[in-house]
Amino acid sequence: MRETDVLVVGTGIAGCAAALGAAREGADVLVVTKAEKPEDASSDWAQGGISTTGTDPETFTQDILDASAGTADEDAVDVLVENADEAVADVLVDTLGVDFDVEADTDEFDYTREAAHSEERILHVDASTGRHILRPFLNFLADHDSVEILEDTAALELVTHEGRVHGAMLDTETTGEPVYAGTTILATGGIGDLFERSTNPAGSTGDGIAMAALAGADVADMEFVQFHPTAYAGDDPFLLSEAIRGEGGLLRNGDGERFMPDYHADAELAPRDVVARAVQDEIDATGAVTLDVSTLEEPFDEAFPDLAAKCAERGVDWESGIPVAPCEHFLCGGVDVDHVGSTSLDRLYAVGECARTGVHGANRLASTSLLEGLVWGLRAGEDAVGVRPEAVEAPELLDRDPDLPERFAAEKFHRLRRTMDEYVGLRRTPDDLGRAQAVLRRLKGEVDAYVRTRTARDLYELRNASVTALLVARAAAENDESVGCHYVEQPAAADAD
After folding, report:
1. Tell me: domain 408-478, CATH 1.20.58.100, correct?
2. What is the pLDDT of residues 378-395, one digit of tens each?
3. Rg (CA), the chain
4. Mind telling me the catalytic residues?
5. Which of 77, 140, 376, 459 has the most CB atoms within 10 Å of its CB?
6. Which residues, 6+ apart, have CB-to-CB distance to 5 below 8 Å?
């Protein structure tokens, strides 16, 4: 049996911030992560940057609300904006010394602009900001006396008793090992593995959302799955940062025509959901969409060397335009939390992409995900201290039946992804969402039958993915209003007799 003051599940920016916040308050912190290297976390893949308030916090607030189609929780947005600059300065600049890009002639920070932002306010390091934040963060925590990090370790189930969470079962032994914690903070990232094409790293299976939901925690806004409009359209997709369009990149269809001015007054800098649907429409109509980088003020490989290298690795001639297509990117909903990340279950917190803070509403503003993870991670970590761990009866994870066939989980995942892509993608219909729920309920039932007698990480990931996918499809079916990244096509009315 193992005990800790605070258990953090996940090592993206939100999990790291939570661990730092708790450690600063004197708590002993155990961080567990499935990741074996930094690039296994979504934060490491973040490109564009991290937003600050810029010259006017009120304008930043309005941009967030506008991008959300007016659905964001205004109180939550206020929390984000009021804490943004202090958190960035304290943790990223002063504590970690992140080497954000500066203007050559002044050595002042080189702020950039992205879609739906009204001004240049985003700090960045080339177009690979996440990597330059997360890796120093992990190194800092690894050297902290009060923090222990267990890599290649998955949380399988939450340990609960009478509506209170007491820690989690880990896969450190064949049949699971309990870690009892005063408080538990979920920071498990997104749901990219539920779709065939995603900007998330492998292993983004909605673990925290599923574990929390199965334990009885409230979830909210699960229908709001954001698709990024400009991911590389070939095999092995990667994100083409919105910063490219912020610096003047243009979208052209298969006929070479610029089309975004026909869809929105802000053209390429319209909200993500608008651009994503427009890109897909033009692909359907003309066969392709490319991102024209010849219009940038400086050469693409000088302005965005990391992205130019990715293009070169795939043999893409960026001078002829980079082929792009929408790709699953971010879940705006998740485990429902308050302004310090506390869930509806006692002693359980959730932060980062697996949490629904209310900041994003129906659509997330660019470069606010790292900021939200940082702000809510710190607040959750600080709030989670002061509770002693208590051992209760832990769930028994059985492992008595023979191993499943080697391709079992992979084949079930293929079925799940095909269902989500076909029925729960950029555009949805009531009939399709009904079909999706039927398929996903059957799949979940099949997986549950195996989980009862077998304990294996890939099986639990499949269980978590099927639970989360069903939550997304169910929420989408219950919301018949098209708003933000949830777009419902209603059937045409029957002709009158």
Report:
1. yes
2. 999 999 999 999 999 998
3. 22
4. 272
5. 376
6. 22, 27, 28, 29, 181, 182, 183, 385, 387, 388, 389
